[in-house]
Write a structure and sequence with these properties.
Elements (H helix, E strand, L loop, with lengths): L8 H25 L2 E10 L9 E10 L9 E3 L5 E6 L10 E4 L2 E2 L3 E7 H4 L8 E16 L2 E2 L3 E11 L1 E2 L2 E5 L1 E2 L7 E3 L9 E9 L5 E8 L7 E6 L13 E10 L4 E8 L2 E5 L8 E6 L2 E6 L8 E3 L6 E2 L4 E2 L4 E7 L5 E7 L10 E2 L9 E2 L3 E8 L10 E5 L5 E4 L7 E2 L7 E8 L8 E7 L5 E7 L1
Length: 450
């Protein structure tokens, strides 16, 4: 049997009004809850050649369109909020390399960090361009311990990490405003272009990138700074290949102020990029393309002579080794904050010779690197006296002409002598002993294998 409970008319009206008012509040908040925007500020830390980590610190800032304050009117659901790290080239659906949930909450901000160096232990992560994708859960505070249903705010940020350039040589240059920048500081007679050469080294036929910006003095004179794309010992703007930041009074699609690429006899002007912006030079499979900072879309270009139609997929062929080489002709002009994907070329390890033959075995390939200290002034000969013997004590290479052996002559001087002795004529997978005789006929030894 169904029992009907009598409700007075005024109570029915109150229940209906209460339900309608609650629905109105819910719908009103549903409109406002979606009116949040987010921005992500990323600060990346680059490695030095042989130390440091590649780190990406990020801070996401939430901004409401309504006049709400944090945390009185809204807050975050940290357990659901996440930040995902991907290689930028893989796009928004690419492989997620790492995920951070939550973070450190500030004044309407959430911050955290991705340690790229630590991730490299799990993935084949290298210096490059990465994207942080954020899904931030925001909820309205309704009072009395009640909260609205969270809304999700999405945002992404792209950043580049790598090795800060380490300079091995600066001529009429100083490293300023930081250690990976270069700026001309003096004008020496006979030095047209001040130069900087890095210890960082791009190996032949390997993929990688370098990224730079330019700095100019306040002078209004037209001039350029250059990033060489070849390894010529001297720089000549009419020869070779380079990236050029050119300052001038005017600009067109093919001339004046802008960023240029010279390759052989042709010069191209990169399109839709300013000299105040950074450019990334990236080589993949023997082909170089040019990008704005943190972008994965190649820059377009126009030839400055002949057919000046826009080149949609501009690139140049490049397979050679490369150091970072910058050039400037004007004081206070140079390149700034250069980041590369290639570390410094490691210093070679030279083996030490000893007076007694030891059991240690120095391993080598085509060159035997060793050092020898001559304690006496060379009188009898300025050449090093040495021989290499095999397991049968047979001479297989020496400084003298010995039948059945290879003769290689090496110079000698008083004090420290360092040698890179070619041993290509020796058999592989075999052991040998190097014997060096000094001015007093004392013998020093090194056991090695090839």
């Amino acid at each position: 049997m169904i029992q009907t409970i009598y409700q007075p008319p005024y109570l029915k009206r109150y229940t209906v009004y209460k339900w309608v008012f609650s629905l109105f509040l819910l719908m009103a908040f549903k409109v406002n809850a979606a009116q949040f925007t987010a921005s992500i500020q990323t600060v990346s830390s680059n490695r030095a050649c042989f130390s440091g980590t590649m780190l990406a610190n990020y801070t996401a800032t939430i901004t409401p369109s309504a006049n709400w304050t944090f945390p009185q009117d809204y807050d975050f659901v940290l357990g659901s909020t996440k930040f995902e790290l991907r290689k930028a080239e893989t796009g928004p659906m690419g492989l997620v390399l790492a995920t951070n949930f939550g973070g450190t909450v500030g004044n309407s901000t959430i911050s955290g960090a991705f340690d790229i160096s630590a991730l490299a232990l799990q993935e084949d992560l290298k210096p490059g361009v990465y994207t942080i994708s954020a899904s931030i859960y925001v909820r309205r505070i309704l009072g009395n311990g009640n909260f609205s249903k969270p809304t999700i705010v999405y945002q992404t940020s792209t950043f580049t990490v790598g090795y800060n350039v380490t300079w091995s040589s600066l001529t009429d240059m100083v490293a300023t405003p930081n250690a990976s920048s270069m700026s001309r500081n003096v004008t020496t007679a006979g030095v047209t272009y001040a130069s900087g050469i890095s210890a960082n080294y791009w190996v032949v036929n390997t993929n990688g990138f370098l990224e730079t910006g330019a700095q100019f003095s306040s002078s209004s004179a037209a001039r350029s700074v250059y990033l060489s794309l070849d390894n010529a010992a001297t720089f000549n703007p009419s020869l070779g290949a380079y990236l050029e930041y050119r300052k001038a009074a005017n600009s067109t699609n093919i001339s004046g102020q802008g960023i240029y690429v010279k390759n052989g006899a042709l010069i191209y002007k990169l399109q839709n990029v300013l000299i105040t912006e950074r450019v990334r030079v990236e080589r993949v499979g023997g082909v170089i393309k040019f990008y704005q900072e943190n972008s994965t879309t190649p820059l377009k270009a126009r030839a400055t002579t002949g057919n000046s139609n826009i080149i949609q997929n501009f690139s140049i062929t490049h397979t050679n080794e490369l150091y970072v080489r910058g050039y400037s002709s004007i004081v206070s002009d140079g390149l700034t904050s250069i980041v590369t994907s290639f570390p410094c070329k490691e210093s070679p390890v030279y083996a030490q010779l000893t007076r007694q033959l030891r059991g240690e075995n120095y391993k080598t390939t085509s060159k035997l690197l060793f050092y020898y200290t001559e304690e006496y002034v060379p009188v009898e000969s300025t050449n090093l006296t040495y021989r290499i013997v095999n397991f049968e004590n047979k001479t297989v290479q020496s400084s003298a002409a010995v039948a059945g052996s290879t003769q290689v002559v090496l110079p000698r001087k008083l004090g420290d002598n360092r040698y890179e002795l070619s041993v290509t004529a020796l058999l592989s997978n075999a052991s040998y002993v190097l014997e060096v005789t000094n001015e007093k006929n004392e013998v020093f030894y090194l056991r090695f294998s090839k």
